[in-house]
Structure prediction request, 461 residues.
Amino acid sequence: MEVQKPTYRVIEGWEQLPAGYHHLDTVGVSVDSQDRVYILTRSEPRVLVYERDGSFITSWGEGTFTNRTHGLTIGPDDSIFCVDDGDHTVRKFSPEGKLLMMIGHVGIASDTGYDGKTTASISRSGGPFNRPTNVAIAPNGELYVADGYGNCQVHRFTAMGQLIQSWGEPGTGPGQFHLPHGIAVDPEGRVWVTDRENDRIQIFSPNGEFLDQWTDVQRPTQVRIDAKRGTVYVSENWWRTGDVSFVHGPIGEHQYGRVSIFDLGGKVLARWGGAGTDPAKPGNFSAAHDMCVDSHGDLYVAEVTWTHAVQFGLVAADCHTFQKFARTA
Amino acid sequence: MRSRLYLDTNQSFLEVKWKAKRDRTVKSRLQTGSFVTEWLPDAGDHLDCEVPPQVELVQPKLLNAFYRTTLVNKGCAERVTLDLGLVFFGDGLTIALPGIAIAEVKQDGVDRSSRYFFAWAAILCPTSVRRH
Prediction:
């Protein structure tokens, strides 16, 4: 099918935080069935909820998470899944923030050889979890978890949280990972995994058979699939000068955060940000970490600007950490 | 008290466990037509135990699910159960513990010389040997 190339304009000042509220990084974003926007932050309160015009609705999640919140995905019943790599858990909440389910033992990590600093230290795959990053919900309700900073596996669970299977091992070959970070399941049940430090997206059958990989991506953090429009959205992180990609080796020049939009065949439809841009300029990206699209086609992008850039003096403290893009065509 | 459903055979039981002499756990159970969540009026007639007073007021408090593997020692009356895929449900909350296993030795009496106790001690209390 022929897919239209989308265009967008950034809406500056979209997020209308109430007085007294403040956040630094935003790590995850999803929209519910009513186009309400749920943002997961690394500040209290952790979850902020907005209307699509940016007006504030509510917040929740105080005292629930560590300061390493990582991913947020909304299920077809508008339940909210949050992943916390700081305590090795996946939590499911009602839209109002009532805890419904937790997968994982708080504070207990699987044994993978991970030294707590670099994914290169992971010598073997482990069970759930060691710093998991994101969760995706399959059409049949099963859950797939990308795991993560301290592991190299994808775990498949029943909707109730019982482990069905796991796959993955450290490496750069098919079915191997260096930081499975983002994850999505398309309507056919195929599992898309952003293999962040290997600069690729791997695509698997529902039971973990390797099917394909896309390599025209830059340190991909998350992948979202809009089956209705036939598009695939990828948020891409900043490769800083001196960082080392497992695939491309040492990075020479800064490759700033980026967003790419593909058709389902892997053809680039739109791409902005990246090398040669000003990452702090509204509309560009410092460290794009997650994104989602609402029913109107508008795009929301969460960034870990502080973790990745501000603390190293690479951008100013007032650099954006969350942006909305209105679709113009 | 508990109600139990075996998914592989689709058999259900209502069970009552109690402590007997020498801290032994004894169980009596009644096969039921389905997974029940309340006391059956005539259950006491079929269970080999003393039914507690006001037993009809009992309510479900905790639901759990797991995959069980049972190992049987052919040399003595001993079984080992390994429960994996643990999920607990209660008060509207589900807790899944995918990285946790519950291992239990079931013996006719208590025999601490079982090899399982030694094996698990080695696994659960790992230690390194230092020369100095």
About this structure: Chain A touches chain B through 20 residues (CB under 8 Å).
